[in-house]
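Weekly structure sync - notes
Attendees: PM, LS, DV (DV joined late)
Agenda: review two folding runs queued last week.

Item 1: First target. Sequence and structure tokens pasted below for the record.
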Amino acid sequence: MKLSVSFITGLLTLVLNGTWFVHAQQVTVLTKDQAMAQMLSANFGIQMAQNEQSQAGNNASVLNSGYLPGISVASGASYDLQDQEVTFRDGSLNVVDGAETKRLNAALNLNYTLFDGMGRYYNYQRLKQTEKLSGLQVRATIESTLLQLFTVYFELARLSENQTVLKQVLNNTQDRLNRAKYSFDFGQNTKLDVLNAEVDLVNDSIALNNNAQQLVNTRRDLAVLLNDDLNKEFAVDTSVAFLDELSLDAFSEKSHTDNVRVLIAESNKQLSAFGVKFQRSLELPRLGLTGAYGWNEGIFPATGFATKNISSGFSAGLQLSWNIFDGGSNRTALKNSKISLENQELALEEVKMQVDRDVANAYGDFLNRKRAYQLLRRSILTAQNNYDRSLDRYRLGQLTSLELRQAQINLLNAKMNANMAKYQAKLSELTYLQACGQLLNVPL
């Protein structure tokens, strides 16, 4: 299909100047550190994890430990209205119609467990361990979200660099179209070269257009992670610096002590150990202290021996209980707790082995992708040199437009593949740091 010059010119103008995806104004550059700081303060998932950690902290406070006594206040009042007939031992009779009896009482009660087989202690330790586990889960959420953040951040950086490359390709294709039209006007080539250039210009325009839309979508993805305005305009830092390989290799030795998955597995094992000890404590006797201060007042009718009685004072007592046999339910629970502890020990060993595998795989992936990036960077020089030479020969009429187009595509692929390899290598490095437990400890 023949494309008109006006159509090509209009399409090029739209691509280069369309305000819906190319913005002439300067936009703020969101650095990696700024993105991390905003994520830590505003990300929804991290905020929810931190709230759960606060709940675990509340549960682990002394107010929820069982170590404090229980104090309660009770009071009551009663009123009786009765017709009474009372016969005394001497045979006399006393009859009262509408006899009133009033009783008032108040008491301050104290209950405190002196000894419960250390169950209170182990339960408190279990709550403290749960708080520690919640903190580790927050860290795991932060690390996972951080990797997600940089996956999107680097994708945005890749698309930004691709946008520059695609614009350059489009400009080169436009120059080729202009040269083909001039040559055709002066009879130096056929109309076929013009048509080929027009088709290539359309394809390059579409590629640039599609990349621009992906860039806008990815920017919104990043805004969601940052809990920011979806329509906010910003650019990202496209520079990447890799850590020294000797330093990276040394991090692997710390994976069993710093990896968050290992720490969580160890925390779960400790929780199960406290669970076993708590179940054992239920087999021991319990000793409690009770105390009270009470006040009582009664007003009685004439049929009683006394018309009024007031008493107040302290009372205290000890209460010993021992559940010697409960039908075997506690013994069953103890056996199951021991099995749970054994499972957590096995889970810990499994996690350690998985972490060793993840560390080895991530380090190998990083080295492989970093080497691929270095090779692709060198291939850009070769592809650029090949394109420049091809362009010179094309201008001299020694090369066809199809051959020049192939050199142009080779250069485009080299640059875009190098962009992808650069960010894939960096993400592999971050994955390795996470496996070693160092993702939050080193500058990224």
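Item 2: Second target, run right after the first with the same settings.
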Amino acid sequence: MEYSIIDVFSDKLFGGNSAGVCVLEKWLPDNILQSIASENNLSETAFLVKQNGYYDLRWFTPSIEVDLCGHATIASGFVLFEEKEKNASVIEFKTMSGIMSVTKENDLFYLNFPSRPVTVCPAYQTFEKAFDVKPVDVYKAVDFLVLLEDEQELKNINPDFITLKNIKSEAGIDNDSFGVIVTAKGNDCDFVSRFFAPNAGIDEDPVTGRAHCSLIPFWSEKLGKKIMTARQLSKRGGNLFCEDCGERVKIGGKAVRYLKGNIRIQ
């Protein structure tokens, strides 16, 4: 099968978030898809099959299938625009979270994703223990959102991932397909964030599109702005161009190819 690795939310190699993209002629058994994602050992591997004019799209971490992934969707769009759909400007995907699209505008790729507004939830002790800092507030949609005082405090946290995993039992969650967004107002952009999902096999994700489904409506309301810039403060780092469109959000970024090859399943 054809296989690519794309660095997303970056304009240079070794930045942003790497995603694997596998273009299939037909679906393989789920255990094979999971084994490929585990072997790749990237935060997500996307698998695509074209059917009835759409591309069916699924995302796997090294340990589980997830219901939404931003950077691997942009990576999928990048590969299709370059190799399969050269005359297209928009590519639509069927996913377990509904129809998603990637639009190419010059050197930027924009996701059109569902908005996931957060609501206030208890200030679980796990977060203060794992981050060694007292949150300003804690919220939740699909993922948790932990608000900190400022960008420097966010940069300084050094999570205890064993402790952070305890949020699953403390909050009574019955699956592993969730993460913890930690965010603060930015110094030279509108907002900054980091994303942790140790229960899903990802300690810290470099740049996380799905997190911005909640971050965009959250900061749009706080800042009184619809169009914003954001930065994820992981070691690799990444820049995102964001727009609050009501029930949908637009998440934009650049992307570059790292690898093109083939995977042989014998």
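Discussion on item 2: The mean pLDDT is 96.
Action: LS to circulate a short write-up before next sync.
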